[in-house]
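ok, trying the design again with the full structure, not the truncated one.
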């Protein structure tokens, strides 16, 4: 059975799995002056796309945080924006996963890949998945498996996968130009 409660439990578990895990075994923000916390945010859209139900964790918004509607990735999307610093415990899931993204394949099996939106900002991208901490990659994979167990999260991941696939299409492909 899939209910919003189960979906919220999955979200909380995924966030907990990534509570302490970071892309490198040291503070990668020192490499880039925390570039993903500046400017346009990890989604390059002026904020981070919240997962379904995640807005409920920000009813009392921390200082500097704001939530706005944004349908650029998928209908009903909500973006969390910040002022470039936060308490680690308050980080949205998108920030905990960055520079990775959780996608669904045709069989709706989750998998993890470098998020193409990270290319303009993250110096870890050229090293690929192998350049990231194995513990971090494994925690994101585990979180992906947890999230994909509920229909609501799968619908979200499907929408995000479609968006990322469009970004990955070569510009010279006619359909790639129709964003
Ligand atoms: S941009 Fe990449 S290297 Fe820099 S803090 Fe963010 S995840 Fe770490
Ligand atoms: S919410 Fe925190 S981790 Fe995410 S972009 Fe803002 S400062 Fe960085």
């Amino acid at each position: 059975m899939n209910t919003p409660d189960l979906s919220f439990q999955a979200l909380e578990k995924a966030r907990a799995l990534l509570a302490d895990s970071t892309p490198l075994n040291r503070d990668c923000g020192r490499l880039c002056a925390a570039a993903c916390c500046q400017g346009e945010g990890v989604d390059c859209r002026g904020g981070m796309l919240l997962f379904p139900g995640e807005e409920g964790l920000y009813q009392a918004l921390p200082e500097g945080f704001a939530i706005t509607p944004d349908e650029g990735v998928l209908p009903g999307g909500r973006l969390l924006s910040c002022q470039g610093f936060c308490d680690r415990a308050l980080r949205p899931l998108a920030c905990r996963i960055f520079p990775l993204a959780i996608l669904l394949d045709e069989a709706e099996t989750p998998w993890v890949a470098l998020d193409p939106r990270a290319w303009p900002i993250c110096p870890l991208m050229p090293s690929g998945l192998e350049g990231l901490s194995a513990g971090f990659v494994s925690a994101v994979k585990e979180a992906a498996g947890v999230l994909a167990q509920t229909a609501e999260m799968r619908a979200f991941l499907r929408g995000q996968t479609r968006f990322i696939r469009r970004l990955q299409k070569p510009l010279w492909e006619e359909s790639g130009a129709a964003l």
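Keeping the full-length input from now on. Residues 44 and 120 are 9 Å apart (CA to CA).
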